[in-house]
């Protein structure tokens, strides 16, 4: 469908260069943005690292250019995402500079008819060397940020909070709000600050500076999900801000998936009753312990509800996959559940049989769930997930929060509350309303729709 639509778009003779961070949660939105801009007539070049390279063959209408990233085998396997980002930022710069300079030069030297002017570079806020480079080449740079707006604008306060306090907490203070970073609670913040992300403190100062120096900031959120933060962000950054809404709503499908989705999920869901299935997935990075795997397995089994559970290969520390689940329990799990290594998540959430999502609350997963009206059970692991989970459970009230208790009874109870009890019905009704609000925003003349039009105008003005 996409190829048909896209090929109908008339080229406007302009090219946009995209440079995603090599993480699943950053590649998906960047490729979605590429599809959107292509449908508006822009040609697309994606520069990407060798590590986690997007699958070029799935996007025949885009040009893909791979640059060496300098990561060793061991560094590509590290579970320390922060370290990997720091290394990538240090090591990609020369190759990226070369690639970009060549592109600009060849665009200039083409004959007048063939000439495709390069409008701008759009890259992830996590690349910190691209702003000074783009500036030195006179190329406007737009920043794509894949967090919720309220997380992005407030997370710059973390270094200060780390310095000041919050390393010790009394039990009685656990649930107190963090005034500097609403709606986080102190126990969320404590986890955030304990993430050994000290190295990120100097990195986040660079992100702030390079974002402020950019030609604009794009969020995959909308006024309906981030109203106050968006107006505050406009003051903080003093650059044009575009909240174009959840991008996958415009071009559905998971063509940018780095892992192959298990296509047997959908026929399995077809056999289940409406809104009966709990879908379980913790995204592309989070890992769990063997004990946690067992607690989740028992929680699902004891809930007596059908479930579709994604366990990524390598996501259970110290084991390959699910081989540590005893055979007897495995047999019982197979009675009403299905465990896969990777799912076509957007299609799963769209399926009529799915009634709830036990999620780590990555921003992509959170908005995908909102867009399909699927209520959530929140089990955030780190970073922005904690804030997203508070929004889901306490501000929008479209989900339940496990409060970090990965225990069989808690999981069983939450599933039953969400899928079987009146409390769950009320949550589902609120989710339906939120879904409609966000849905209206991305439709013609909605706020996100108009923001996208403004973004296209902005890019065309360079
Ligand atoms: N995803 C998927 N199949 C899975 C699990 C996740 O396609 O089995 C996709 C999901 O739809 C989302 C992305 O991977 O677009 C995960 O991004 P998110 O921001 O939720 O979490 P992260 O992986 O960055 O922690």
TrEMBL record:
<dbReference type="InterPro" id="IPR002213">
    <property type="entry name" value="UDP_glucos_trans"/>
</dbReference>
<dbReference type="Pfam" id="PF00201">
    <property type="entry name" value="UDPGT"/>
</dbReference>
<keyword id="KW-0328">Glycosyltransferase</keyword>
<dbReference type="GO" id="GO:0080043">
    <property type="term" value="F:quercetin 3-O-glucosyltransferase activity"/>
</dbReference>
<protein>
    <recommendedName>
        <fullName>UDP-glycosyltransferase</fullName>
    </recommendedName>
</protein>
<comment type="similarity">
    <text>Belongs to the UDP-glycosyltransferase family.</text>
</comment>
<keyword id="KW-0808">Transferase</keyword>
<dbReference type="GO" id="GO:0080044">
    <property type="term" value="F:quercetin 7-O-glucosyltransferase activity"/>
</dbReference>
């Amino acid at each position: 469908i996409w190829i048909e639509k896209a090929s109908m778009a008339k080229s406007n003779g302009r090219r946009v260069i995209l440079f995603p961070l090599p993480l699943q949660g950053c590649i998906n939105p960047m490729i979605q943005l590429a599809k959107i801009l292509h449908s508006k007539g822009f040609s697309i070049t994606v520069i990407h690292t060798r590590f986690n390279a997007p699958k070029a063959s799935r996007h025949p209408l885009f040009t893909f250019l791979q640059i060496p990233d300098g990561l060793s085998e061991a560094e590509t396997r590290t579970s320390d995402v922060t370290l990997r980002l720091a290394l990538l930022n240090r090591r990609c710069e020369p190759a990226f500079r070369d690639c970009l300079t060549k592109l600009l030069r060849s665009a200039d030297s083409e004959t007048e008819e063939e000439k495709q002017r390069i409008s701008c570079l759009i890259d992830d806020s996590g690349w910190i060397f691209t702003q000074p480079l783009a500036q030195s080449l006179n190329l406007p740079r737009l920043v794509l940020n894949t967090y919720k707006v309220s997380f992005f604008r407030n997370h710059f306060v973390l270094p200060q909070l780390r310095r000041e306090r919050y390393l010790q907490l009394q039990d009685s203070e656990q649930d107190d709000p963090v005034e500097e970073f609403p709606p986080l609670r102190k126990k969320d913040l404590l986890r955030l600050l304990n993430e050994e992300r000290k190295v990120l403190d100097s990195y986040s100062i660079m992100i702030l500076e390079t974002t402020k120096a950019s030609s604009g900031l794009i969020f995959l959120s909308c006024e309906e999900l981030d109203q106050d933060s968006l107006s505050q962000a406009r003051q903080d950054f003093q650059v044009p801000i575009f909240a174009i809404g959840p991008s996958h709503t415009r071009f559905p499908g998971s063509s940018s998936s780095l892992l192959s989705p298990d296509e047997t999920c959908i026929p399995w869901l077809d056999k289940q009753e409406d809104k009966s299935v709990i879908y379980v997935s913790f995204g592309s990075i989070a890992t769990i312990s063997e004990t946690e795997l067992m607690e989740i397995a028992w929680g699902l089994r004891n809930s007596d509800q059908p479930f579709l559970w994604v366990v990524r290969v390598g996501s259970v520390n110290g084991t390959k996959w699910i081989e540590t689940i005893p055979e007897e329990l495995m047999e019982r799990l197979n009675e009403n559940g299905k465990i896969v290594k990777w799912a076509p998540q957007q299609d799963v959430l769209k399926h009529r049989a799915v009634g709830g999502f036990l999620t780590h609350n990555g921003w992509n997963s959170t908005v995908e769930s909102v867009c399909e009206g699927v209520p959530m059970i929140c089990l955030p692991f780190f970073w922005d997930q904690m804030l997203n989970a508070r929004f889901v459970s306490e501000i929008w009230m479209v989900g339940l929060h496990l409060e970090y208790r990965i225990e069989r009874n808690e999981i069983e109870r939450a599933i039953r509350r969400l899928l079987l009890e009146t409390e769950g019905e009320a949550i589902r009704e609120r989710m339906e309303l939120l879904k409609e609000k966000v849905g209206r925003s991305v439709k013609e003349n909605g706020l996100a729709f108009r923001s996208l039009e403004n973004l296209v105008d902005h890019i065309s003005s360079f």
